[in-house]
Design goal:
elongated; Rossmann fold; 5-stranded parallel sheet; 5 strands; Hypothetical protein af1432
Length: about 400
């Protein structure tokens, strides 16, 4: 492609002279001409030029002022500018260079000197453009790789969340719905976008510890015995250990990598898994301190866990479980409202209510196999009927 040059001079005879000079280079350069500095700025704003030739002394707006404005234009600020002057001012070249000019030539312009200057600045501009294109290519490559890693991580996290549900098809979409619902409640609470994303990704892992609970307890029909209930409650600590403790395989990998790789081993822990471990451990704590496994109360319970708690219970109520049928949404919301300030943080409950229309859409988008709705008189104070 021909390189584009813009020539700006208020004297038409000078422009005609440049037309004749630059005509000999028409195979390599394509020149545009204007005697209006305002029009020149508009062209530089709208079109990509590889160089500009700019007269210093022009009516209305001096070349130095035009140059100053060019330096503030995002599209044109890297365009090399060769200034022209017929004034024998010693300070003029210094001013022009300080403002970003590539050079300053005296009128009348010597054709050979002009061509030499233009070839230099155009060569430099081409190198700059190639470097920018290469840098942008690297940026796009990094962005693509980052997105690939993000989606790989996302896929792994969702699949890990499904581990806790894989033995029970009736609750297969529970982790998906809890993730979506928790993000919506976090948004209603005004959490920042980063924390919303973290809770969206971490919430599906809240019950990962159930992989360590025996089937005879996990799928028991009806109430659990005290011993079985204690076993079930262990899923919180099991989940935390899965997500937080250093895996032996990870340690072995970094040891191997430090010995065999040119790159240093990065042993930093994932903040996302830290949040997921926190949720796994504390999502069954209650606002009144009567939850498990630590008996935390009020704001001592992590906010992310308070959010997941109400979303987890809601989803457990409106979908069937092996130990009971599904509640109607009306009855489920009544039960949750009754537990505000006891089981649930009142502020989180209010945010949940605000987000309910969108949460309902999530429920409709990711349904499970439904069974008959249970009678509303079934009591809330029987934990085995609600959420294990």
């Amino acid at each position: 492609m021909k390189q584009q040059i813009l020539v700006v001079d208020d004297e038409r005879p000078v422009l005609d002279s440049f037309r004749r000079m630059l005509h000999s280079q028409r195979d390599a350069w394509e020149a545009s001409f204007t005697n209006d500095p305002i029009e020149a700025l508009e062209r530089l704003r709208d079109c990509a030029y590889d160089a500009a030739i700019l007269d210093v002394k022009m009516p209305g707006m001096s070349g130095l002022e035009v140059l100053s404005r060019i330096q503030r234009m995002e599209r044109a600020k890297d365009t090399p500018v060769v200034m022209l002057t017929g004034m024998p001012d010693r300070n003029l070249k210094r001013q022009a260079l300080e403002l970003g000019a590539a050079d300053l030539l005296s009128k009348p312009v010597d054709t050979a000197e002009l061509f030499a200057r233009l070839k230099n600045v155009l060569r430099l501009k081409r190198c700059q453009d190639e470097l920018k294109a290469y840098s942008r290519s690297l940026e796009l490559s990094v962005e693509q790789r980052t997105m690939e890693l993000f989606y790989s991580r996302l896929d792994i996290i969702w699949r890990l969340g499904k581990v806790a549900e894989h033995r029970d098809e009736e609750t297969g979409n529970h982790v998906v719905r809890v993730g979506f619902s928790s993000r919506l409640v976090a948004e209603a609470l005004g959490m920042n976008h980063g924390l919303q994303e973290s809770i969206f990704l971490a919430a599906p892992l809240h019950d990962i510890g159930k992989i360590g609970i025996p089937d005879r307890v996990l799928f028991k029909q009806g109430p659990l015995s005290p011993r079985e209930s204690a076993t079930m409650k262990q899923h919180c600590r099991i989940g935390e250990r899965i997500l937080k403790e250093e895996p032996l395989a990870r340690t072995a990998f970094f040891h191997w990598r430090a010995v065999n790789s040119l790159f240093a081993a990065d042993e930093s822990h994932s903040p996302l898994l830290d949040i997921a471990a926190e949720i796994a451990l504390t999502h069954h704590e209650r606002w009144d301190g009567k939850g498990y496994p630590q008996g935390l109360a009020g704001e001592k319970i992590p906010l992310v866990s308070r959010v997941v708690a109400v979303c987890d219970v809601y989803d457990a109520l409106v979908f069937p479980r092996p130990y009971r049928g599904a509640y109607s949404e009306r009855r489920a919301m009544e039960m949750i409202r009754e537990e505000s300030n006891r089981h649930f943080d009142p502020a989180v409950h209010e945010a949940f209510v605000r987000a309910l229309p969108e949460i309902r859409s999530v429920r409709e988008r990711f349904p499970d196999a439904m069974t008959a709705v249970v009678e509303p008189e079934e009591a809330w104070d029987e934990p085995h009927l609600v959420c294990r």
